Amino acid sequence: MVVHGKLQARNNHPNYAAAKSGNAEAALALVRDLLTDEGLNWIHALLQGRQPLVVPVAAIEASGFNAIPDAMAQEIAARLGLPMAPYDLGQSNYAGHTKANGWHRLVTPAIFAGTIKPGANYLLVDDHVGFGGTLANLRGYIETNGGHVIGMTTLTETGGARKIALRSETLSVLQRKHGEELNQFWNAIYGHGTACLTDIEAGYLYRVESVAAIRTRMAQAATDARGRGFSPICLAPRP
Prior knowledge:
Elements: E1 2-3, H1 7-11, H2 16-20, H3 24-34, H4 37-47, E2 53-56, E3 60-61, E4 64-65, H5 68-80, E5 90-91, H6 102-107, E6 112-113, E7 121-129, H7 133-144, E8 148-157, H8 168-190, H9 199-206, H10 211-227
Parallel strand pairs: 1-8, 2-7, 7-8
Antiparallel strand pairs: 3-4, 5-6
């Protein structure tokens, strides 16, 4: 994961609000100010001569279409001579993760749809990584449909969020704390066990006192999300 800059610099940028609300010119100006030569060099080294399709996390926010990932993807593709992914590939639901707490993020996972070219390589681009769930879900969608994700990059991060992959030591702590009970609950709801969590997600969960408390907080988050117009996951176990 290549991260280019500081969250404060993005949030304080004069074009940030307009870019987050869909203004393409504002987004491009912000991206050109915050993309770094060091970050682009890291991406170039990561690619090792490969020509991946560049795919932005195209998402609808409360204020409108977030134009930053698309502008960032276009700029990276232009500077590194890379092709863009087909434009029908993107987030298909409104998750509302910007400035949301962890429980909202867990019950409103990002869902993706669109064309994947089997065997093609992909570079994922987003403006920010928090829990890492959105990028992880996009990677899962691409790889489930035959593509290969070889890198990710964002403008900014929540502290430590660039380490998306679940570390074995984090999983061990989670398993010692909550055992097989949480793994079974997660598999019943999401269709996969806790080994597929991001490192930040797992860390969030092992700080909770019990599986019962996790269930309660997720149920409350789902209720709150519905009240604000979102469509959270169904917390009833899958048949």
